[in-house]
Design goal:
13 helices, mainly alpha, globular, 222 residues
Length: 222
Amino acid sequence: MTEATVDGVRAALAALEDDKTRAVNERHGDDHGVKLSALRQVAKDAGKDQDLARALWATGETAPRLVALLVCRVREFDAAELDEMMREARAPKVLDWLTNYVVKKSRHAEELRLAWHGDPDPNVAAAAWALTAERVAKQPDGLDLDALLEEIEAGMREAPGREQWEMNTTLAQIGIEHPDKRDRALDIGERLEVLKDYRTPPNCTSPFAPIWIREIVARRGG
């Protein structure tokens, strides 16, 4: 690729398409066939370019949108634009990268966390919980942890998959980072049994909150 243009990026991605990679990605809901390491190289070759990022996002295609999230300048998005992007995104990897690489790093993160909490779109609500988990771990001052635990206890078991995952992450972070809330977090996790039977790869920590909490606390010598 010699030019950082939409056509250039799409051509580079098309040349990297692989049927086996697409089959694996589609099993996870991602409709593209480019290995992420190769996709990252396309983004690196393109360089940071906000206009290009917006144009790639506007294609509506998953692989170009992933490149867009790597070449964008986070601070140049306003809150309304990020809100629109979150509501447009549907592919799981796009949602992951938009939340973790862009929104979490945005100066609008807290504004959006509050605005998205309880949103009827479960993907948007899930992003709010992801931002909440981040605050629990890194900047908990001002959060009502007891209220969060009550909400998790009342709603996590029946929450849609992505939202449930992020609620569970918040539960685990409360238990890990806040010893005075740990027993309650463990109790909620044990009773709700969310992700208890999740198949965890070798050498990875189970997402089942009681196991996750105890393992991380033990690693830290707690």
